[in-house]
Every structure is written in structure tokens, then in C-alpha cells.
């Protein structure tokens, strides 16, 4: 709590007057540990909408309800199959959120790419590095094309708010696939000592280390 209070004060003291909010999984333990008095509490979930909103309301009896991360897909770790979620299933949960009067931030609405070493990782009893693609089975794919979720979400949102009376963008024109023949190879580990000296274990001045 002290760290969160420090962050809130750091923002306020620097002139940030916009609404601050915390974002945690919608269960009592996470909400209690990750929230602050006077700061909007929001939840992260992709299903079990009624139960999640109930937990949010129990923790914060007044104020708006918001799902700050409405998970509509998932990220892929090395060695796994690409994760997908049925568009109709995700759209039904979006409809439940909007019907309850909740605000929602779709995660992810637009897929992306983890360039260089920005892919990140998880840890669940073992290190789980993520792949370069962050397509996430999003409403707009990694290359910007509208997918099944885009159309399903548009229909749901139109039941609750006006949507532009415009045609949906067509998928972008793709170049034909080009086969690339690889005639040589080099194993990674035997060549590591040739590439560069080992990095210093001491953090450099101004770097972030934790």
C-alpha cells in the first residue's frame, strides 16, 4: 500500500489531475492488496462477468464499474499452439459487461509485435518466454485486418451505443508468399563466445535494475 500511495502522490504532486485507477484480478485477495482509498478500483478478466463485477462492487460499493483488461485472447509462449477464443463467446461476455453498465477496455483490440527483446515472459513453475508476435487473437490482427471478433463486437456495441455508419475496412492487400531456401546453418551456443564479451553484472548509471 505504501508503494501505491507513493505512486499516487508522485502523480498528483506533478500536476496530474486526471482520474487515477488501480487494476487487479477481480478476486478479494488481489483487490484488497492492490487498491487505494479514493482511487477507482478496476478489474481484469475475460469471462465470469457477473461474478467479477460482483467482486468489484463488494470491494468498492460506489463509483463506476470497469473491466480495465477484458481478455479476448491470450499470448503465446514458445512451443505452444497459437491461442484463440471463439468470437461469439467473447462477444457474449462483452454484451454482459455493457448490459451491466460497466466500462470496458478490450485487451487486445489490436494485435501487435514484440520487436527485438521486448517480448517478455511469464513464470508458472518454469520460465515461459513469449514469441515475437503479440497477435493475441485480437479484434484487429497483428497486421491490422478486421477479424471475426471485430464484426461480432461491432454488432454488440451497436446495441448499446451509436456506431459510425461506415463500411468496415477491407483486409489489406498482401504480397504473395516467397519461398526462401536456407543452404547453411550455424548452431547458436558454440558461437556465443565469438560474438561479444560477457556483459557486466553491475547496473550502469541511470539503468533500471530489480
Automatic annotation (TrEMBL):
Molecular function per GO: hydrolase activity, hydrolyzing O-glycosyl compounds
Keywords: Hydrolase
SUPFAM superfamilies in the cross-refs: (Trans)glycosidases
Signal peptide: none
UniProt cross-references to Gene3D superfamilies, sorted A to Z: Galactose-binding domain-like, Glycosidases
Domain (Glycoside hydrolase 35 catalytic) ranges: 2-158
Name of protein: Glycosyl hydrolase family 35
Organism: Streptomyces turgidiscabies (strain Car8)
Taxonomic lineage: Bacteria, Bacillati, Actinomycetota, Actinomycetes, Kitasatosporales
Amino acid at each position: 500500500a505504501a508503494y501505491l500511495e507513493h505512486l499516487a502522490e508522485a502523480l498528483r504532486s506533478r500536476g496530474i489531475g486526471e482520474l487515477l485507477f488501480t487494476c487487479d484480478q477481480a478476486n478479494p485477495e488481489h483487490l484488497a492488496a492492490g487498491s487505494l482509498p479514493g482511487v477507482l478500483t478496476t478489474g481484469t478478466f475475460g469471462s465470469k462477468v457477473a461474478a467479477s463485477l460482483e467482486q468489484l462492487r463488494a470491494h468498492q460499493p460506489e463509483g463506476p464499474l470497469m473491466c480495465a483488461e477484458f481478455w479476448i485472447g491470450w499470448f503465446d509462449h514458445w512451443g505452444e499452439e497459437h491461442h484463440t477464443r471463439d468470437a461469439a463467446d467473447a462477444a457474449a461476455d462483452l454484451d454482459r459487461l455493457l448490459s451491466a453498465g460497466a466500462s470496458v477496455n478490450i485487451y487486445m483490440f489490436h494485435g501487435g509485435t514484440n520487436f527485438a527483446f521486448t517480448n517478455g515472459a511469464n513464470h508458472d513453475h518454469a520460465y515461459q518466454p513469449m514469441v515475437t508476435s503479440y497477435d493475441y487473437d485480437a479484434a484487429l490482427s497483428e497486421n491490422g485486418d478486421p477479424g471475426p471478433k471485430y464484426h461480432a463486437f461491432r454488432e454488440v456495441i451497436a446495441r448499446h451505443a451509436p456506431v459510425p455508419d461506415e463500411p468496415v475496412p477491407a483486409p489489406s492487400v498482401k504480397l504473395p508468399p516467397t519461398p526462401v531456401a536456407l543452404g547453411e546453418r550455424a548452431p547458436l551456443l558454440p558461437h556465443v563466445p565469438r560474438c561479444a564479451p560477457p556483459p557486466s553484472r553491475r547496473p550502469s548509471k541511470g539503468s533500471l535494475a530489480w
